[in-house]
């Protein structure tokens, strides 16, 4: 049973001049924690707005919780919890006032579904009378999540809930999502942070409005076709320039304090070390490593670019 | 002995009895990529403002590009570049107009602006977009252009405020290529960010918690010290105990 | 119903927690009334006058007493030489002077003709003109008193008189104008801004993705501003009566009914603007430039419509404030009843119906 389905969804803006969502199809199963992962401008927010019935797609069909996004838009509005990209809170209302307001708007009370938000709400409860505008990013995020959960939705749609929030709050937030998932709520969450991919059960990688891959994080990483090496030396920039000039190197990107390098067939770590040392680099280290989602993303992007041109 | 372009000694900024920045001390070497991290409200922005010559410290000492932060704010401003993800270029000016405007602001001579902007457009591969409004460019190109404009007047130090948040991984790599290149040419790069994966690219990182610098080292050594796999982990361990929010 | 009430309460929180809104809402009427009432009014009060009385007879004293008695002049100096007048003017201690020749009273009695000289400080032509008019009026008033009924021995300039009367009326005309202006600003600008603000914040997205009916969002936005605007209207009435000593001649009930109608017109305009814009700045700019300016120009309270070029007069017909201004002027200042303003009311009603239906129809249940 699918909670969210999209079929060949296409969306353009500016009278068709800007293609935001390009023939997107994927499903989110009931009770799944599904991540939509891609950079800014990839089309994530447009997809969320189509699913929340805020935008009409140019073509294609989509349904949420069994309801069609066009025909049954009222039913969807009654049954989803939605947290838009900007945490939508009234800055001049207190935590309690915000929560009560949204509860009433959704035709319920804070008390009625208290058990669902209890764990999250208790963390911000000490600041009940503080205005939302004066809360830290992490606290705003928690309050927004409470507001989105207040009517006990079956499906939770979270558009970039962790953007602009510090590491500590981000971790806590993903912990909360796991707990909500255990209560049977389907969660579709988008993020520009590649490292959050591994926290989802399944992910879709999106770039320029197109889905590049949909699978579990492990399988996406597992499908990385070649060996990947992490290389470093004393002078990382010179190493980058040198390796790119090396005929045996297929790709070479900076990756934190290392360079991530793939080789043409038949070459490995030894060749890299030998070549780099030959170029006068000190303390060259080259190790074969497991690729991450980000490596996969770059590879998928490069493959697309290559086929396009 | 390496040349130091930023020297901070017990730099402090207080608002009443609130110490936004509390006696921070560190040095940044020439050509170094220095990561300046901290959670929201840790005091990053306040510290950076003092270093950019935008606000006076309450106490302590600091020199930036050899100039005193109390007395020579104007000289500091001439010798630094600044770029943030939020604002950098005028969206309703064309690529060329932006370059010549910012070049002019920093007192680059007209002839030089012309020559160098051609060169810059070549390197960025923007030949066909020079007459386009910056607002029409994709985010990644905007950021690359913004960085190029920030170092157009060949500053000694360039301050980057969360420069690569939100861009795709490939563009981000290209962006870091540019930063590495600038550093290689001797420009010191000072990156403030709370994106930890951005931090991993830096030569050295300082982490601010509640107005103090709690850790300062290379990413590798910090990970070792906190027995962590990623900077994320290091930061989490340090910032978990932070008292203040935003 | 409960949802609606909670929503309305929330709107009041927004208003009362935002100093700027409060200032616009309640500071504006006070400032406007005071500004228009005193500073911009062409009526002049408490003018320093110098008397140079060479006659010192019964007639001159009587005129001087009349001037003393009027609230327009303060007479604290008498001079004894002609050149003193100029000195006082130069010091800025006086704005005008009245000179009686030595044989003023005797001339008047003997020949039926006498002269007085009025000297005014011409550096402020408006005040000078007004002052001359006032003194002329007082003098001719005195002439009326001493002349036997039906016998006019002196030429009286009737134009002067009319000017004199017009000054008094003019100061009242701005009150209905200010009312229209303030209601326009408060209703149109604040309503549109408050809706657009929700769009900017993203809260509109959440509200739309809720069981709450979109039309109710509009109603909940409109109701608080309707109430606040009525409070505002009451405030202006109070200020007019107690600060500016204006007498409300017509029915207060009728005033409130007509004002409610006008407020709804303005609210509809505000809703329309909020539909067309996505940023608070744009909404504010559109309401201020698009609404306030026409209200100022085409209502007729700053400059008479009759003197405008014909195209402007035609345009003025589509400005709602113009009709409201006519209604209020008739009811409040002239004391006329509904039977005299029903036409204007009908125009206003039709405008409201059209605007409101467009606003409701255009209100988007989606973002695009």
Automatic annotation (TrEMBL), chain A:
The keyword Nucleotide-binding applies. It comes from the Bacteria. The keyword Transmembrane does not apply. Residues 4-233 form the ABC transporter domain. Keywords: ATP-binding, Nodulation, Nucleotide-binding, Transport. GO terms for molecular function: ATP binding. Signal peptide: none annotated. Pfam families: ABC_tran. InterPro entries: AAA+_ATPase, ABC_transporter-like_ATP-bd, ABC_transporter-like_CS, ABC_transporter_ATP-binding, P-loop_NTPase. Belongs to the ABC transporter superfamily. This is ABC transporter ATP-binding protein. The lineage of its organism: Bacteria, Pseudomonadati, Bacteroidota, Chitinophagia, Chitinophagales.
TrEMBL record, chain B:
This is ABC transporter ATP-binding protein. Signal peptide: none annotated. Coiled coil: none annotated. Keywords: ATP-binding, Nucleotide-binding. The keyword Transcription regulation does not apply. InterPro entries: AAA+_ATPase, ABC_transporter-like_ATP-bd, P-loop_NTPase. One of its GO terms (molecular function) is ATP binding. Residues 6-235 form the ABC transporter domain. It comes from Danxiaibacter flavus.
TrEMBL record, chain C:
Keywords: Cell membrane, Membrane, Transmembrane, Transmembrane helix, Transport. The chain crosses the membrane at residues 21-40, 174-196, 222-244, 250-272, 284-303, 340-360. Belongs to the ABC-2 integral membrane protein family. It is found in: Cell membrane. It is a multi-pass membrane protein. The keyword Transmembrane applies. It comes from Danxiaibacter flavus. InterPro entries: ABC-2_transporter_component, ABC2_TM, ABC2_TM_bact-type. It comes from the Bacteria. Residues 136-366 form the ABC transmembrane type-2 domain. Pfam families: ABC2_membrane_3 (PF12698). Its main location: membrane. This is ABC transporter permease.
């Amino acid at each position: 049973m699918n909670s969210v389905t999209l079929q060949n969804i296409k969306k353009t803006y500016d009278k068709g001049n800007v293609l935001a969502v390009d023939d997107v199809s994927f499903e989110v199963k009931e009770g799944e924690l599904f991540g939509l992962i891609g950079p800014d401008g990839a089309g994530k927010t447009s997809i969320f707005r189509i699913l929340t019935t805020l935008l009409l797609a140019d073509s294609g069909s989509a349904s949420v919780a069994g309801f069609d996004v066009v025909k049954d838009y009222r039913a969807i509005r009654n049954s989803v919890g939605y947290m838009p990209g900007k945490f939508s809170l009234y800055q001049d209302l207190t935590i309690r006032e915000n929560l009560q307001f949204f509860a009433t708007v959704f035709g319920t009370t804070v008390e009625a579904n208290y058990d669902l938000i209890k764990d999250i709400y208790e963390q911000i409860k000490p600041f009940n009378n503080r205005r939302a505008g004066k809360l830290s990013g992490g606290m705003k995020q928690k309050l927004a999540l409470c507001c989105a959960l207040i009517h006990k939705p079956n499906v939770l749609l979270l558009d970039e809930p962790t953007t602009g929030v510090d590491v500590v709050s981000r971790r806590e937030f993903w912990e909360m999502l796991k707990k909500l998932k255990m209560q049977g709520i389907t969660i579709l969450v988008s993020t520009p942070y590649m490292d959050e991919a591994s926290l989802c059960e399944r992910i879709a990688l999106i770039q320029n409005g197109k889905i590049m891959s949909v699978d579990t994080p492990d399988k996406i990483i597992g499908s990385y076709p070649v060996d990947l090496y992490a290389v470093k030396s004393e002078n990382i920039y010179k190493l980058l320039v040198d390796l790119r000039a090396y005929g045996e190197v297929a790709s070479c990107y900076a990756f934190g304090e290392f360079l991530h390098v793939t080789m043409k067939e038949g070459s490995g770590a030894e060749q890299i070390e030998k070549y780099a040392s030959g170029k006068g680099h000190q303390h060259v280290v080259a190790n074969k490593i497991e690729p991450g989602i980000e490596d996969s993303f770059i590879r998928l992007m490069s493959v697309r670019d290559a086929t396009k041109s | 002995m390496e040349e130091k372009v930023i020297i901070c000694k017990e730099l402090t900024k207080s608002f009443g009895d609130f110490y936004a920045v509390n006696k921070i001390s560190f040095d940044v070497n020439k050509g170094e990529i220095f990561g300046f991290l901290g959670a929201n409200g840790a005091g990053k922005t306040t510290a950076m403002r003092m270093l950019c010559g935008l606000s006076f410290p309450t106490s302590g000492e600091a020199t930036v590009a050899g100039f005193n932060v109390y007395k020579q704010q104007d000289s500091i401003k001439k010798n630094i570049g600044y770029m943030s993800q939020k604002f950098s270029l005028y969206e309703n000016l064309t690529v060329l107009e932006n370059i010549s405007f910012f070049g002019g602001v920093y007192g680059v001579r007209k002839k030089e602006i012309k020559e160098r902007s051609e060169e810059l457009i070549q390197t960025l591969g923007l030949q066909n977009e020079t007459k386009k409004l910056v607002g029409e460019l994709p985010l990644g190109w905007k950021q690359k252009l913004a960085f190029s404009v920030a170092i157009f007047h060949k500053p000694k130090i360039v301050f980057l405020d969360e420069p690569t948040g939100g861009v795709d991984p490939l563009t981000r790599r290209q962006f870091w290529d540019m930063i590495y290149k600038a550093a290689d040419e001797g420009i010191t790069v000072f990156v403030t960010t709370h994106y930890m994966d951005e931090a991993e690219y830096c030569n050295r990182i300082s982490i601010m918690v509640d107005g103090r610098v709690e850790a300062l080292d290379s990413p590798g050594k910090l990970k070792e010290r906190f027995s962590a796999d990623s900077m994320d982990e290091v930061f989490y361990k340090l910032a978990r105990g932070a008292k203040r929010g935003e | 119903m409960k949802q609606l009430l909670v929503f309305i309460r929330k709107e009041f929180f927004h208003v009362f927690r935002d100093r700027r809104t409060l200032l616009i809402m309640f500071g504006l009427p006070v400032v406007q009334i005071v500004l228009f009432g005193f500073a911009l009014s062409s009526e002049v009060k408490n003018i320093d006058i110098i008397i140079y009385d060479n006659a010192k007879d019964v007639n001159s004293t009587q005129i001087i007493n009349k001037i003393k008695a009027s609230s327009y002049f303060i007479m604290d100096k008498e001079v004894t030489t002609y050149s003193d007048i100029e000195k006082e003017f130069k010091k800025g201690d006086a704005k005008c002077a009245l000179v009686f020749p030595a044989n003023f009273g005797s001339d008047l009695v003997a020949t039926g003709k006498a002269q007085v000289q009025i000297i005014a400080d011409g550096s402020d032509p408006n005040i000078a003109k007004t002052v001359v008019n006032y003194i002329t009026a007082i003098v001719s008033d005195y002439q009326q008193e001493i002349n036997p009924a039906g016998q006019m021995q002196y030429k009286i300039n009737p134009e002067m008189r009319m000017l004199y009367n017009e000054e008094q009326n003019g100061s009242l005309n701005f009150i209905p104008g200010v009312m229209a202006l303030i209601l326009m600003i408060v209703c149109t600008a604040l309503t549109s801004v408050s809706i657009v603000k929700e769009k900017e914040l993203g809260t509109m997205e959440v509200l739309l993705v809720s069981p709450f009916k979109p039309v109710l969002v509009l109603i909940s936005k409109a109701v608080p501003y309707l109430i606040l605007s009525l409070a505002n209207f009451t405030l202006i009435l109070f200020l007019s009566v107690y600060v500016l000593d204006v007498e409300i001649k017509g029915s207060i009930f009728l005033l409130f009914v007509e004002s409610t109608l006008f407020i709804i017109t303005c609210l509809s305009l505000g809703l329309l603007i909020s539909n067309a814009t996505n940023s608070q700045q744009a909404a504010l700019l559109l309401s201020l430039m698009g609404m306030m300016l026409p209200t100022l120009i085409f209502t007729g309270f700053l400059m008479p419509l009759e003197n405008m070029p014909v195209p402007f007069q035609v345009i003025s017909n589509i400005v709602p404030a113009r009709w409201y201004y006519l209604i209020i002027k008739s009811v409040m200042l002239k004391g006329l009843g509904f039977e005299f303003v029903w036409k204007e009311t009908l125009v206003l009603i039709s405008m409201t119906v059209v605007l409101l239906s467009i606003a409701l129809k255009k209100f988007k249940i989606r973002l695009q």
